């Protein structure tokens, strides 16, 4: 606004001169000074305050304008994505970026590899039909920790996970799979996909898959895109949680990761691939629709 420009530069130039150059009346400018803020300006100030609050939260610091807009809608604000993009740009609020992380699993072994049943098709028609898994490092001042996750492709929900002191299968893949199975009670026939790491190829892990009636699938050799969903989760986890802290102990790292996965990622984090809702909400919506279908068939 012209009046705003005059107000911001009134100590550099005479008000009368700026009014003449900008073709506005001096009386109009002084009348504007006495008027309260417009409703739009008040709303923008409230939005900026809330945007900063969301951005300062380490878990949501990587929200760009699309997800920021959805988050504001959840909190009761009425606003458009272009408006939020403009406010964030004007305030210099930029989503945090992902950092690269190191590959963890060791594929240099003589164990047999399972065929790739997914072929980079990461869509699942129902819950617990396809799980994907991977392992990553977590640094603490005490020692390295190793996080293994099992993700349900339907809804991108973390079905189970484990943290161990070593890369032994008993502390990584086996522990994570047992955790996922005890919580989710998945049906037989589920496809379990991973890379070719020894933790997934070892006899103990294969035996556990067979005991649960699962079909094993593995990525092609050296092809990181074959397990893109699991790797994407780790990039998100590290950006929104791990890189935000310096973990002193194993206990501290486990507590923070538990909080991220169980109270934020599954329940609250907005996913653009899910229509900007959380994994839990996406799965709940599916079951609600299934219940409705059953009711209609019985009616």
Task: Provide a descriptive summary of the structure in words.
There is one protein chain. The chain is an alpha/beta fold and 299 residues long. It has 12 helices and 5 strands. A hairpin with a 4-residue loop joins strand 1 and strand 2 (144-152). Helix 5 (65-74) crosses helix 6. The radius of gyration is 26 Å and the shape is elongated. The mean pLDDT is 88.
Key terms:
46% helix; 5 strands; five-stranded mixed sheet; alpha/beta; 299 residues; elongated
Count of runs of 4 or more consecutive helical residues? 12
Q: Strand order within the widest sheet?
A: 3-2-1-4-5
Span between N and C termini?
Answer: 61 Å
Mean pLDDT: 88
Report the sheet-strand fraction: 5-15%
The SSE string, one letter per element, is HHHHHHEEEHEHHEHHH
Largest sheet: 5 strands, mixed
Helix content: 40-55%
Gyration radius, rounded: 26 Å
SSE-based structural type: alpha/beta
**What would the principal axes of the Cα set say about the shape?**
elongated
Uncertain residue segments = none
How many beta-strand runs?
A: 5
How do the strands and helices of this protein lay out in sequence?
Elements: H1 2-8, H2 15-22, H3 26-34, H4 39-56, H5 65-74, H6 81-91, E1 130-139, E2 144-152, E3 157-164, H7 173-184, E4 191-194, H8 198-201, H9 203-211, E5 215-218, H10 228-240, H11 250-265, H12 279-298
Parallel strand pairs: 1-4, 4-5
Antiparallel strand pairs: 1-2, 2-3
Helix pairs in contact: 4-6, 5-6
